[in-house]
Design brief:
Trna Endonuclease, Chain: A, domain 1, 5 helices, 7 strands, four-stranded mixed β-sheet, alpha+beta
């Protein structure tokens, strides 16, 4: 079971730039063995850039839930086990030609990665901490 984040932890993490949030996400995902997305009755939430359709991912429930407001207030945070991510999601996202936006903050700022690149970074993090 993952520990609940304090308000101070959340505030400090959200103040990081996109690269540091990505580093934080890799460590949290590998340590907790889960990735968080937002879903509704039609599937997972998508963000769009000029070039890419993206699935946003977060390292912890609290960060995903922060996005469940406004047009997404009907959404709920859902975790995906890391081994399920590796075995199903990476290939599925590639097949659907979707990218990943990693840990977007409330200003929609987040790194955009291709699924295979994200998958390799998570595996590299696991080897580093394993």
């Amino acid at each position: 079971m993952t520990k609940q984040l304090s308000d101070k932890d959340i505030e400090n993490t959200l103040s990081m730039d996109a690269e540091r949030r990505y580093s934080y996400l890799r460590k949290e995902v590998v340590a907790n063995r889960e990735i968080w997305i937002l879903v509704d009755d039609h599937g997972c939430v998508m963000l769009n850039t000029e070039d890419e359709d993206c699935v946003p991912v977060w390292p912890n429930r609290e960060f995903a839930e922060m996005w469940a407001n406004g047009e997404w207030e009907e959404c709920r945070a859902e975790s995906i086990a890391l081994n399920k991510w590796h075995s199903r999601w990476t290939m599925g996202l590639e097949d659907d030609e979707l990218a990943i936006v990693v840990f977007p903050n409330t200003e929609n700022d987040g790194l955009i990665l291709y699924p295979d690149e994200f998958d390799q970074d998570l595996k590299k993090q696991a080897r580093k901490t394993g």
